[in-house]
Amino acid sequence: MNVHKLWEYREYVKVNGIMLTNELISLLQTSLTMLQVENHFTHMQYWGQIYGVDRDYHIAVGINRDAINERKYFYTTDFKFWGLLPKAKKKYKFLSLIANTPFRGDISEKIKVLDEALDQGDPERCKNMKEEKRLAATISNICEEAEVCARGQLVKQPDGVVVVSPNFYGLTGPEAKLLKSYLHIRPAQHKWNTNILTRADYNLSMDFLDSIDMDIPNGCWNLTLENVGTVAYLKSLYWPGMMYFHKVRTPDAGFLYVGNGRKNLDVPFLL
């Protein structure tokens, strides 16, 4: 969520039981405005909160010129120091999914992760992982699978740079009811012609990302319209605590995750 609109947007997230207190908003706006100025980010967003036993992690995203490839993720536990998260490695992204201990709130903490897919005698069966790497991997997994935007929020310029559209005026009521109106904020993973074959209104500048209606299994997203159809809410069943809201026919929209960082791996068996 745009950090400069948290006072306005807290009314939307309140519907889902998430409370952004006055104190939290004040702390976020003060510290993240300084972070934005120091790093010359074009956009600064509050990404969400991951619960820890001792302290919670608060996550922010700084966006430079390219809104897809130049995103930097920061964490804090005290709102005084914002640390830059390292790029998540593939092995840690896997280990973070099978780690069953809660976060502590200390980036130097080390945990042991048991990979039950390996034989008991395999020396690689039990691996050590620092909490900082686990945090980076967890956030990377959530972003790849559940961080979304409305169609038209991000546009690709002729030079290939993706920017936050200044001309996004919101989805219409009928569009807001469709899963294909919401896109993953990540480099496209489907074939380049997927949207061309499935959208009669294909537009290269807007449809360069994967739409969530292609996600497997069918039903892994929960889309509802509240407030007499004026606000769309999107939730991922894979990542409890994730929510995206969009006020129909306005530019107001935001992503927020508040949870323990655990993926619900049982979704395919529950649907």
Summarize the structure.
The model has no long low-confidence stretch (mean pLDDT 90). Helix content is 24%, strand content 26%.
Q: Your description of this structure?
A:
- It is found in: Cell projection, Kinocilium; Cytoplasm, Cytoskeleton, Flagellum axoneme.
- InterPro entries: RSP9 (IPR055316).
- Keywords: Cell projection, Cilium, Cilium biogenesis/degradation, Cytoplasm, Cytoskeleton, Flagellum.
- There is one protein chain.
- The protein has 271 residues and is of the alpha+beta class.
- It has helices at 6-14, 22-39, 90-98, 131-146, 173-176, 194-198, 267-270; strands spanning 43-50, 57-63, 71-76, 83-84, 110-114, 126-130, 148-150, 154-156, 162-164, 182-184, 221-226, 231-236, 242-247, 253-259.
- An eight-stranded mixed sheet has the order 4-3-2-1-14-13-12-11. It has a two-stranded antiparallel ribbon with strand order 5-6.
- Strand 3 and strand 4 (83-84) form a beta hairpin.
- Helix 3 (90-98) crosses helix 4.
- The relative contact order is 0.15.
- The model has no long low-confidence stretch (mean pLDDT 90).
List the helices and strands and how they pair.
Elements: H1 6-14, H2 22-39, E1 43-50, E2 57-63, E3 71-76, E4 83-84, H3 90-98, E5 110-114, E6 126-130, H4 131-146, E7 148-150, E8 154-156, E9 162-164, H5 173-176, E10 182-184, H6 194-198, E11 221-226, E12 231-236, E13 242-247, E14 253-259, H7 267-270
Parallel strand pairs: 1-14
Antiparallel strand pairs: 1-2, 2-3, 3-4, 5-6, 7-10, 8-9, 11-12, 12-13, 13-14
